[in-house]
Amino acid sequence: MKLPLRYAVGLLAAPLPILALAVVPAQADAPASTSIALRADTVPAVAQSARVGTLAARTSISVTVSLAQRDPAGLQSFLKQVADPTSAQYKHYLTVKQFAQRFGATAETAASVRGYLASHGLKVGQVTANGLTLTASGSATQIEKAFGTTIGTFRDRAGKSFYANTAAPQLPAAIASAVTDVSGLSNYAVSHQDAVRGSASAKASGYNLNSAISAGYTGAGETVALEEFSAFTQSDVTTYDKKFSLTPSTPTVVKSDGGTTDKSGEDEVELDIEVVQALAPGATIDVYEAPNSDAGEAAVYAQLVSSDVPVISTSWGQDEAAETASNRTALNTDFQEAAAQGQSIYAASGDDGSDDAGNGGTSVDFPAADPYVTGAGGTTLKITSANAWSSEKAWSGSGGGVSSYFDTPSFQTSVNTGTYRSVPDVSADADPNTGWAIYTEGAWAEYGGTSAAAPNWAAFTAIYDSEAKALSKPVLGFANASIYALAESSKYSSAFHDVTSGSNGAYSAGTGYDKVTGWGSYNGANFLSDELG
Questions:
Q1: The whole model's pTM is what?
Q2: Residue-level pLDDT, tens digit, the chain, 533 residues
Q3: How far is CA 106 from its chain centroid?
Q4: What Rg value do the Cα atoms of the chain yield, rounded?
Q5: 130, 19 in Cβ contact below 8 A?
Q6: 153: part of which helix (H) or strand (E)?
């Protein structure tokens, strides 16, 4: 069953065949006539659910408040230059401090927002290093008063109970333009799992990485961050490592918005970790854990860009229409920052083919649909007896199509003459019948889904960055700009496996770029050689 909100978008298992503002005085309540509602900041589920009541007054609520960028036009100009090989600014990325100084909210703006929230009795956290996010917490009554809304309780069609604001939050006109999103007024989120377990044997990547790894490029010195909405069990990962004689460092857990103790998606997290360790055993893995909520989502991405982690992978997402408009804006701001700082972000494109929303139409998954994120689609991979690549076709579940919200980015105009961005950008093995041998929840199983494709590309990027540094060359950085430039060059057939057959429903794979597999999968050693020499 297709679930309506955030879930592990690429997690499938199968039986194993073998293996903006001036400072304003802190004020209490702003009269309605001087308040401004934030745009479309109510979750779509409210309109599709039954109202049960009103949230208890003393319920504790934590919100994540996203602040508007300073000089967005200047940021767009910088992003174009840093991705242009003919520009002197090419791949000269910013540090977090430099980004905050140029594009983060001013200290005065942040102080005015913090002051307003504190005046309502909320406990207000510090602004993140990038100058664009802060957290606040208080009782439901305090939150309702601060944001001029009512928080009701609801039950959706599946019987799930949740709370959510019944109308868009309002802020005084003096500070409303400084805030792009308030996340946490709703706790509506759903984690989706689907696992069938069996016995397993080893499965190689099939993407021509052996020569790179044997040459010493294992991602050593690099860090891959995994964005997760579930906790995991380290002993499962340790069992996996022992089985395949891997000796990676133990993953480090980084808590965002208090982290999470929920383990309903631990197989997703363990899949992500084990794929990265198998392909880039020398890389350090940081697991960023957050509550599965819009506040958790906003907090974890703000932390990821403020920490300037070089490579990020997420296997969680939802139909882009399920995100509120303000939430998409806030997260897109974070993704722009990541591109400006040279961070590579990969996101699973979903496992429902061309119908991500599950309503019989065509739709795509978020955050893979964001142009500053590299969407990873899925394939069915066939390998030789020597574990080498043999052939690949599109996997029927590969999420792909056309965004309804994001314009066609400049890097995609040569293959997309439409108004809106196409997804995915790249792909890798995702068919659960040709997938990865994973140890999770005390058993072996073979996993697939685009959840396996995103960490696959992230691990390869760690190897790329490691080799680039060894050769005193720039890291991959904003991946889409580099990937599309290489794919559109004469080296395409060398660096990529072009997937030309198969369909995801409304779209079919074909020569070159397509809306099922993007540019296809990588040919590891060739990609490294073609880009780095």
A1: 0.92
A2: 333 345 566 555 543 332 332 333 333 344 344 677 776 678 888 988 999 999 999 999 999 999 999 999 999 999 999 999 999 999 999 999 999 999 999 999 999 999 999 999 999 999 999 999 999 999 999 999 999 999 999 999 989 999 999 999 999 999 999 999 999 999 987 534 332 232 333 344 689 987 555 567 799 999 999 999 999 999 999 999 999 999 999 999 999 999 999 999 999 999 999 999 999 999 999 999 999 999 999 999 999 999 999 999 999 999 999 998 999 999 999 999 999 999 999 999 999 999 999 999 999 999 999 999 999 999 999 998 888 899 999 999 999 999 999 999 999 999 999 999 999 999 999 999 888 999 999 999 989 999 999 999 999 999 999 999 999 999 999 999 999 999 999 999 999 999 999 999 999 999 999 999 999 999 999 999 999 98
A3: 27
A4: 22
A5: no
A6: strand 151-155
**Which amino acid type is present at position 498?**
D
Angle of the 325-340 helix axis to the 294-307 helix axis, nearest 10:
10
Number of helices (H) and strands (E) in the chain: give both, helices first.
14, 27
Residue 266's alpha-carbon distances to 85, 372, 434, 455, 459, in angstroms, are 41, 27, 21, 15, 20
Name residues whose C-beta falls within 8 Å of residue 328's C-beta, 6 or more positions apart in sequence.
320, 366, 370, 405
SS3 state of residue 381: strand
Tokens of 503: 């369909």
The token pair at 84 is 């242009």
In one-letter notation, the amino acid at residue 67 is L
- Whether the CB-CB separation of 265 and 296 falls below 8 Å is answered with no
β pairing state of 223-228 and 284-289: parallel
